[in-house]
Amino acid sequence: MIRGLDTLYQSVNLLEKRQENISGNIANVQTSGYQAKELFQSTYKQVQLHNYQGGNDNNQRIQYDGFTFGNYLAGSYLNSAKGAFQQTGRSTDFAINNDGYFRVRMNNGQVAYTRNGNFRLNDQNQYVTQEGYQVLGNNNGAVTAAAGIPDFSIVSFPNDGALESLGNAYYISQNAGTAVASPQLEQGYLEQSNVSTADEMVSLIQTSREFQANQKALSATDDTLKKAVNNLGKI
Description:
It is found in: Bacterial flagellum basal body. Belongs to the flagella basal body rod proteins family. It contains two helices and 17 strands. It is an alpha+beta fold.
């Protein structure tokens, strides 16, 4: 029974993380360039249970069936499917029509990556994000507004799952990425979030029902423990 409590604890903890992730996706459904974060779980390896006979046979080992201690969060990945394009008509808005991310330099000097091309111009006529981060060009410097498509630095990653989210559609990576030789940019458009509200709501309902099922199992386990503590001693 105590083992059952431990298994239920791990299950509820996993469901809590799933619920937090779903809430985060729903909160960013209107964030341009946001890529939905997906979690995947695995089951712990099965272990063999055994016991020993009592009395004169107390050294005789009895082998029982295997037991699984529950599930755990195995990792996460970004849904790299492209969001729909929305025409804005603003000359400082850009959408990437192929794979890749804009490179931006944050205020602390760290380079981050985003597909949110909702830019503006600073006092030096340079492209910056709405937060004021400098948008980098292929020369690793600022990009100045001029006629034609700006020379933005666009990089891609073989595994988008290696990107770590900073929130607000910004990501970082230990890998510098590979420069996209011929990026396809659409000026006057923004890529919308690829979050499917309907899918996220279904996942939220499913997670809620799993919470309810675990709550019932916890209540049954608690009742059994009470009987074991209160009644076995009377026998």
